[in-house]
Amino acid sequence: VCALEPTAKVSDACASYADLDTLNDRLHPYVRNLANNTDFFSYYRLNLYNKECPFWDDENGLCGNIACAVTTLENEEDVPKIWRAEELSKLEGPRAQHPGRKQQQERQRPLLDQLGAGVGESCVVEYDDECDDRDYCVPEDETAGGKGDYVSLANNPERFTGYAGEGAHQVWEAIYRENCFSKDPVSDHSVGVPGLSAPQPALSQNQAQAAMDFKQVMRAHDREKAVKSGTAEALDDSENTCLEKRVFYRIISGMHASISTHLCYDYLNQTTGQWGPNLQCYKERLHEYPERISNLYFNYALVLRAVGKLREYVPDYTFCTGDPQQDKKTKEMITRLASAIPAGPHIFDESVMFQDDQMENGISLKEDFRNRFRNVSRIMDCVGCDKCRLWGKIQTNGFGTALKVLFEFGNGHAGEEKPLLRRTELVALINTLDKISSAMKALERFRGMLAAELNIA
Ligand code: FAD
Asked: What's one GO MF term for it (predicted)?
């Protein structure tokens, strides 16, 4: 039964803020522990440096205006080196080299023999860079020649980096632009989505403003597109947006809100040199925009549902880090987590999506959705700060994996196909859940700080 509060705006997900907060109180320690205290989940392999931004340089690229890059650099040079984004966003801690295929095979073979397993998916996927039709992300290394590096996630927390200005805005703009589906089917997909038929509370001024901001951005993009293509087709009324497009937007906006929460919570006071929560940052970027927070909760529901679905899959998964005892423990931990997530569509009901998936110009809505999400993952190569790029890539891969689990695989019933995930996908999924779950905790503390401030006043 869907416990939807009429005042909550997690309406595309089938749960209220209060439900999700309660669930998060219970699950947060498991998620933290798994993401931070196991080798399997705290090292990530990616190609952080060798991929070029595939968008900015083409003739229609967003940064045809050279001044934006120059301005950023000029501004950078105005600040002391220590505070420069470049310095702040550097990766720290060990960056192990990829062990290499032969070395890994040697390390894994005895373990596999010992476990009596065949060639475990999680052991060979380190070399599997093939793109699967069902992927919502470009697999790491697909386009680059190199194998990438392993990065210690624990040593590179997502926090304030100073990356801002024209460059960062350009990336966000490009990401939101992916939400302009070629054709917005005006559908009644919303029928049957718990909560959507419930009366919506009147928007507060801030909510209305946030909605307007986005609509204006979207209309500007659509108009530009329509002018370029010479058609008015792109000028669809965004009020009649279909469920899938709204879900796409909420995922992006919720991810953006989570990033903002982390950078506000682990903020560098540039005057004192102290790291800590910045209440003003929270007020300006989050508190004033309940829609953004709602989208973050929406993401929690979506990712949690996907992790819950892994309960059937994890027992067959081979965790091979080379330490059988730790691998056994890791498997127990993720099994416990997945099993603690309520089964059934109480949290998020993905079955209502892509119901009326007709072909449009030879492409289905689901394919369009998938391709656009892949593009978002490609845009991450345009992020001009190492640490932001790292977490941006992990989180898009995490959401891509969640979407793949939700929309490409069954519900674990006998005879149904079980998801085959690459190690990087599983690691990204759990770390993305950890980021959202920690952001919800940080928001709770910010609300407490705000209440204390108001009491003092
Ligand atoms: P921005 O956050 O850049 O937002 C731009 C515009 O988008 C806003 O003006 C608003 O209209 C709209 N907007 C903002 N939030 C939302 C939302 N949730 N939903 C919908 N619309 C919204 N900085 C760090 O310090 N640490 C990081 O780890 C980090 N990671 C990043 C990862 C990526 C992928 C990107 C693109 C940027 C990252 N940044 C990071 C930069 C950071 O996100 C901001 O861009 C920067 O702090 C400047 O913030 P801003 O206030 O100008 O607005």
From this structure: FAD binding
